[in-house]
Amino acid sequence: MSVECKVPGANPIAKSPYRLAPLEMQELSNQLQELLDKDFIRPSYSPWGAPVLFVKKKDGSFRMCIDYRELNKLTIKNRYPLPRIDDLFDQLQGAQYFSKIDLRSGYHQLRVQDEDILETTMLSTDYTKKLSFNRYINDGDLVIVYEKHDNMKAVKVCEKSVLENRFGVFKHSDWIGKPYGCKVSSHKGGFVYLLSPTPELWTLVLSHRTQILYIADISFVIMYMELIPGCVVLESGTGSGSLTTSLARAIAPMGQVYTFDFHEQRAVAAREDFEKTGLSSLVTVGVRDIQGEGFPEDLIGLADAVFLDLPQPWLAIPSAGEMLKQDGVLCSFSPCIEQVQRSSETLTSKFTDIRTFEVLLRTYEVREAKMDQCQGEESTPGSQRPCKRKHHAGEANHWQQDNSGSPIVMARPSSEAKGHTGYLTFARLKCVASSSSRVASFVA
């Protein structure tokens, strides 16, 4: 059995997994394990991927189906004449012994040609087999120790080690076997929380070897670069690896991130961090001056998206265009508007839909405060409405809390607001038929 594509060198197709109910998730896990045990399937890092869905049978069980419709559009249909039924019966004349086959198991006995195996990959939404992901802490795992919202640290669990802080002494041996997110106490009665090293938390605790992108910018980048499981992403400017960690989660479990930094020590440190967080199979770290040398030639035409964090990104844009697939997306992070202007001028030759965004994050403090109950002048007798107490001079920066009145939830903007971090410029590689480009600027 073989799969033949209509278009030679057709780009791999990887659709996002369908959402499954908890019962279907459990059924998927059971059937995958059964097929793995029988060696009918095997783990794959193919750029192809078809989603899985379930159809309920009359007996209440589930039939697992793989949606190959997108693959079928690229497949050359084989034409075979169907034999006549009377001719088939004629061939049975004189037969005395008959056997039957189980068509369900027979499906898995049809051998697919080795060069076509990657194209038949299915996407599993069995989250127990993805990045994090152990649910329980083991010796050697990396955990995020949460003391306060502004005080967290990454700790590698070693059975004979201890953690000492102002809340007391915590033995690592007491952590082993506990679930992530649990609360552990010290001998003094203090406590901390043990959290899983998600990309968001890792961004907050990693060592800042360079300026990094934070959660607001990172989420915006992943959305506009249209990253899904199975994508191939090139990144220039690894730095502290903050963005790389989130890119790896977005393209897991079958995609790949190729990240490059001209500074060898930073690249080595980033590679060690990816080992700690279990992302080494998804991230390839290289030492290369992308501005001067461009991206490696063996990646030409393989990238779904390219991210540039360089002092002179316009020098790397021509090379990035060669790496992208048709309709691929490029993103450039620049702290200065002059860099944006020069990059946009370079982009207009081969890219379209050029847009620049500035993401500003504004947080709110939500707390419970005591409010006076006061009588409104125009209210009806017996009705009351809450009103604020006046702040005294020494209380300008604190919430007014009083023992009188009933509690009420209040929100106000944080006194500390993060200012400008940088501009994000996005552009899409022109298709062959495209002849015009648009340049726009937005503030988000």
TrEMBL record:
One family name in Pfam for this protein: GCD14
InterPro entries, sorted: DNA/RNA_pol_sf, Rev_trsase/Diguanyl_cyclase, RT_dom, SAM-dependent_MTases_sf, TRM61_C, tRNA_MeTrfase_Gcd14
Domain (tRNA (adenine(58)-N(1))-methyltransferase catalytic subunit TRM61 C-terminal): residue spans on this chain: 190-428
Subcellular location: Nucleus
Record's keyword terms, sorted: Methyltransferase, Nucleus, S-adenosyl-L-methionine, Transferase, tRNA processing
Boundaries of every Reverse transcriptase domain copy: 55-185
Keyword S-adenosyl-L-methionine: yes
UniProt record, GO biological process: tRNA methylation
GO MF annotations, alphabetized: tRNA (adenine(58)-N1)-methyltransferase activity
Chain positions covered by the region annotation Disordered: 371-414
E.C. numbers: 2.1.1.220
Name of this chain's protein: tRNA (adenine(58)-N(1))-methyltransferase
One cellular-component annotation, GO: tRNA (m1A) methyltransferase complex
Chief location: nucleus
